[in-house]
């Protein structure tokens, strides 16, 4: 790992060795597309597997509500400052659990 100073930030470079993996010869392939409104689109050429779409809008709305509540609680902090994790300890427990990803 290398830490390279830049103008206004630091760049962390991770260097690793990749081992050669054996080639898998299969006639089946799958395509996965990750998105936001449509969280996952999955398709394959295997006849017994149906294409699958996963709606991402409910997850987006949960995230939006979380951000809204976080902004509300941060506005109550001293001096109306954004806080570091150490200063957020007096927030309600459900909000703290969502902060710890």
Which structural traits does this protein have?
2 helices; 101 residues; alpha+beta; 5 strands; 3-stranded antiparallel sheet; two-stranded antiparallel ribbon; single chain
What does this structure look like?
The chain has helices at 57-75, 93-99; strands at residues 2-5, 10-13, 30-34, 38-44, 52-55. A three-stranded antiparallel beta sheet has the order 3-4-5. A two-stranded antiparallel sheet has the order 1-2. The longest helix has 19 residues, at 57-75. Helix content is 26%, strand content 24%. The chain is built from two helices and five strands, in the order βββββαα. The chain is of the alpha+beta class and 101 residues long.
Task: Detail the topology: elements first, then pairings.
Layout: E1 2-5, E2 10-13, E3 30-34, E4 38-44, E5 52-55, H1 57-75, H2 93-99
Antiparallel strand pairs: 1-2, 3-4, 4-5
Give the terminus-to-terminus CA distance.
23 Å
Overall pLDDT score = 80
Largest sheet: 3 strands, antiparallel
Query: How many beta-strand runs?
Result: 5
Are there runs of 5+ residues with pLDDT below 50, and where?
A: none
* Global outline: flat
Radius of gyration: 22 Å
Strand content: 15-25%
Tally the helices.
Answer: 2
**Percent helix range:** 25-40%
Compact overview of the structure:
With 101 residues, this protein is α+β, with helices and mostly antiparallel strands. The protein contains two helices and five strands.
